[in-house]
Amino acid sequence: MNKDLTQLEILTELEPVAEANLNRHLSMAKDWHPHDYVPWDEGRNFAAMGGVDWAPEQSKLNEVAKAAMITNLLTEDNLPSYHREISESFSMDGAWGTWVGRWTAEENRHGIVMRDYLVVTRGIDPVALEEARMIHMTQGVRSPDNWGGFLVNVAYVTFQELATRVSHRNTGRVCNDPIADRMLQRIATDENLHMIFYRNLCGASLDLAPDQAMEAIANTVTFFVMPGYGMPNFRRNGVLMAKHGIYDLRQHLEEVVQPVLKKWNIFERNDFGARGEAAREHLGVFLEKLAGDVLKFEEQRDRMFARDAARGIMQPV
Ligand SMILES: [Fe+2]
Ligand SMILES: [Fe+2]
Q: Which of 30, 84, 89, 253 has the fewest CB atoms within 10 Å, i.e. is most exposed?
């Protein structure tokens, strides 16, 4: 029976793949500047500087757009936690280290541009936003006990980058502001490139250590939660976002999980041993249940919309 590869062995074996994908990323990524995406002439001082403090009627965003913007921005804000996770389980040496630094610097732009946009346009209450950021960042991101290590983290960030891409893009659509839409599309393009890096590295791990990587992937998909878990109002905002198609179960299954699994040929591979086979089977059962849950969620949502319409309640988008 083959011995498991250690994390160091995996990182060492995959260093050339990391280097090739880092170079690919650098050749594809376009530089952009957060200040180019913010309508500065809409800005004015707050009371501390002789102006007017925020009031709800100043926001042009509907409730769904607000919930999605806050959730997505607080998620981006927690970058120090993600940096810690990634730098601990990848490595700070060679191409791995260059990637971790570059990726962190790119991610930081997302929080910068979204916050600037929201404060300048008065889209959301800046005091409530700051209070939520303090709570969320103080708490940080904690991996569950069965997580950690390179394989689980590289699988997780593959799905998570794609999930944030979907969420940012759909948030742009509900803002009813071409400036916000353009900004969020710009961020979504970054997230897609990040996803490709991690997806390629996770794919290479599958070729290198099929059983170990398959177990990590099955674990990740079956326990997946968005990284914003635990932030103030996460559940309320998440439900609102799901009901209005910013990020719902069908999108999670069909636009995030399935395309990535297909790219890795998970259900066509024949290089698994008993452990890999068992993990793949476990994943297959989970996906069937998820497909059932998608239908249940949509029936519930449609019933609720019908009830609201009968009572004359307009949906916020
Ligand atoms: Fe991001
Ligand atoms: Fe990203």
A: 30
Q: If you measure from the C-alpha of residue 274 to the centroid of ligand 1, how many angstroms do you get, rounded to a whole number?
A: 37
Burial 224-246 (b: 16+ CB within 10 A, else e): bebbbeebbbbeebbebbbbbeb
Q: Treating both helix axes as pointing N-terminal to C-terminal, what angle do 178-208 and 7-28 enclose, rounded to 10 degrees?
A: 140
Contacts of 8 (CB under 8 A, 6+ apart): none
Is residue 118 classed exposed, middle or buried when 0-12, 13-18 and 19+ CB atoms within 10 A define those classes? buried
Tokens 């998909």 sit on residue:
221
The rounded distance, in Å, linking the Cα atoms of 282 and 10 is 24
Q: How many CB atoms lie within 10 A of CB 248?
A: 21
Place of tokens 């501390």: 48
pLDDT in tens, 23-76: 999 999 999 999 999 999 999 999 999 999 999 999 999 999 999 999 999 999
Are the C-beta atoms of 133 and 74 separated by less than 8 Å? yes
Ligand 2 geometric centre to CA of 112 (Å): 14
Q: Which of 234, 52, 259, 235 is nearest to 163 (CA)?
A: 259
The answer to whether the beta carbons of residues 292 and 21 sit under 8 Å apart is no
In the chain, domain spans: 7-310
Q: How far is 168 from 181, CA to CA, in rounded Å?
A: 9
pTM of the model: 0.94
Do you know the residue count of the chain? 317
Interval between CA 105 and ligand 1 midpoint (Å): 10
Kindly identify the ligand whose nearest atom is closest to the C-alpha of 168: 1
